[in-house]
Structure formats: structure tokens, C-alpha cells
Specification:
Layout: H1 12-25, E1 29-32, E2 35-39, E3 44-48, H2 58-68, E4 72-76, E5 83-90, H3 102-111, E6 116-120, H4 122-128, H5 130-139, H6 153-163, E7 169-176, E8 179-189, E9 192-200, H7 212-226, E10 232-237, H8 244-252, E11 256-266, H9 271-274, H10 277-290, H11 301-317
Parallel strand pairs: 3-4, 9-10
Antiparallel strand pairs: 1-2, 2-3, 4-11, 5-10, 5-11, 6-7, 7-8, 8-9
Helix pairs in contact: 1-6, 3-7, 4-6, 10-11
């Protein structure tokens, strides 16, 4: 089991600047326990960065829920409770093409014929990345309102102006014909480089950018782990609900799965109703029957996980 504690940490001024960055991006946020909490779906809030564990007790976590108006908090914990999920990490300082799965390597080689992948400036992101963000929002079924911070010139300028002031917050991008085809925002703190946000263009719309994400992950990972101060590159943990396609992509890119304790905490006034094994079974049935027709129902899994956790705790106590 990987040892994660309340260290590494972010300096208070860096944490506040990062919160402003997420707010400018369009998230509702709250700093608490040394991390940033943000809307993680229809019912939940989540803590970021992944590798910094919130220093909060149950009561304080529920205070976060109350302030943000959500039902379930999803976050990493150093204790042996909660659900063990994979966290995607890279520690091999000799990382190269040899680390890639065979087909992934072929796709990287193909992408290099038409694409360029490198660190880019926030000014470049501001002017050359709007199409990438627009296609990402559309693919995820999110709002394409022209006032969205990622789609408006004013919003993008604000994001870039905040980002350049945050130490070690950088962006790696893959370019096609003087536009950004895919990018990854990453933050280095202590000996860790963690990917925070990634967006990409739609390969079905422009076949030349189909493998932009493959080249992006490879070149970003190779550059990041080669830096002397970086001992681990992290590109997040398994999502809830799980995205098996994305998990397979990261494995093929050379990342390994390290066990990560994921905790779920529910609003106290809802706990008597929802934190029961029967409730979990009902929610699981709803997701299995209707999840394909109504994708948003996948978000019910965070409530289901919380129900199962509490039921298991009660059974253990008995």
C-alpha cells in the first residue's frame, strides 16, 4: 500500500492562487484542510490535488458539504478505511518508448509525423487552445455558452493571468497546424509532478489529431520524470464511476497502479436514509438499468459507495 500522508503540502498562498485558478476555470471551490474542494458531479465534491490528503475530521468534511451544497464528499485518506482504487503513477527515471504498450508506441510514432508536443506558454494556450476546449466541453455534454470562461476571450485571459503567477503550474501541449490539439495542466510540488486538467480535440472531427493524447502523455511524462527534483509523476486516480477506457489508456502509456484509499462521507442529515446496504442495492439497480440511457445517473455511484461504506462499518462493529 502506498504511503500517503498529509505531506507534501502546498503553501497557503499557492493554495489560494490555485483555488482562484479553478474558480476562473468555472468550478465552484472551497479551500479546506490543505486542499481545494470542487464540484465533482451532480451530487459530490472532490479534493485536489490527488496526492495531497485533506487534513480534516468527519465533522469538518461535512461542513465542507454544507457550504458547497452537495451530498457526498470524495477524497483520499491515509487511514485504512474506504475503497481502495488505483492511482496512476510513474516512478521510472529511465522512462522511454520501452515503457509503452506496443500499439500505444505505434500510435505515438504515427502522431509525431504530423504533431508537435512540448511545453507551451499560457499566452499560447489563451490564443491557440479555444477550439480544443470547445470540442472537449461538447464531448462531455457541458455548456457551450459563449460566456463560459474557456470560450470567452475575457475568461481565457483571466485564467492565463492567474496561472502565470502560480509557481510550477505549467502546461504541456500537442500542436497541429498552429492550434492546440491536446494539453495537460500540471503542478510540481515537493518531489511530485501531478497532472490536474487535460483537454483534447475530437479525433473524429480531425483525423490528424486522433493520437494527440498519446503523444501528449508520452512527451509530458518523459519530460516530467527526467527532472532531477521529480521522483513521481501522477495523473490522478480512478474516477467514480470508473472509466475503464481511460484506465487502460494510462496503463498503455506506461503508468502503474498504486493503491489509494478513497473515502466517501455523506451529509449527516441524509445518512440514516442513504447509508444502508439496501439503499446501495437500489441505486446499483437504477444505474444498471438506466445508466446507459441517462449517463448522468452514473453519478449515483458516489452515493452508492457511501452507503456501502457505512453498512460495512456497521457490520464490522457488530
Amino acid at each position: 500500500m502506498m504511503e500517503l500522508s498529509n505531506k507534501p503540502t502546498l503553501a497557503p498562498e499557492v493554495l489560494e492562487a490555485l483555488r482562484e485558478f479553478y474558480e476562473a476555470w468555472g468550478y465552484r471551490t472551497l479551500p479546506a484542510g490543505g486542499t481545494i474542494w470542487f464540484d465533482g458531479g451532480s451530487f459530490s465534491v472532490m479534493a485536489t490535488p490527488t496526492t495531497i490528503l485533506p487534513d480534516l475530521n468527519d465533522k469538518e468534511v461535512r461542513e465542507v458539504l454544507g457550504k458547497m451544497g452537495r451530498i457526498v464528499a470524495v477524497y483520499g485518506t491515509a487511514t485504512n478505511e474506504g475503497t481502495v482504487v488505483p492511482m496512476y503513477t510513474l516512478r521510472d527515471k529511465t522512462y522511454d518508448l520501452k515503457n509503452l504498450q506496443r500499439q500505444f508506441k505505434q500510435q505515438v510514432n504515427k502522431a509525431t509525423q504530423e504533431l508537435e508536443s512540448r511545453e507551451c506558454t499560457w499566452e499560447e494556450w489563451q490564443t491557440l487552445g479555444k477550439r480544443c476546449d470547445q470540442e472537449t466541453l461538447q464531448r462531455r455534454g457541458q455548456s457551450l455558452n459563449p460566456d463560459h470562461p474557456l470560450l470567452s476571450d475575457e475568461g481565457r485571459k483571466k485564467i492565463a493571468s492567474i496561472a502565470v503567477k502560480i509557481p510550477n503550474l505549467r502546461i504541456h501541449a500537442c500542436f497541429y497546424q498552429n492550434e492546440i490539439a491536446a494539453y495537460l495542466v500540471h503542478l510540481t510540488f515537493g518531489s511530485i509532478c501531478e497532472g490536474l486538467i487535460t483537454n483534447r480535440r475530437e479525433g473524429a472531427v480531425e483525423p490528424a489529431v486522433k493520437y494527440a493524447s498519446h503523444l501528449l502523455y508520452y512527451t509530458f511524462s518523459k519530460e516530467a520524470i527526467s527532472r532531477p527534483e521529480v521522483q513521481m509523476v501522477c495523473v490522478g486516480r480512478q474516477s467514480v464511476p470508473a472509466n475503464e477506457t481511460l484506465a487502460r489508456f494510462k496503463a498503455h502509456a506506461g503508468f502503474t497502479n498504486e493503491p489509494y484509499y478513497l473515502s466517501f462521507r455523506m451529509q449527516k442529515y441524509l445518512a440514516p436514509v442513504f447509508e444502508r446496504k439496501l439503499t446501495a442495492k437500489v441505486l446499483q439497480l437504477i444505474r444498471s438499468k438506466l445508466g446507459g440511457k441517462v449517463p448522468a445517473l452514473g453519478n449515483l455511484e458516489v452515493i452508492e459507495r457511501s452507503s456501502l461504506r457505512k453498512a460495512a462499518d456497521s457490520q464490522a462493529a457488530d
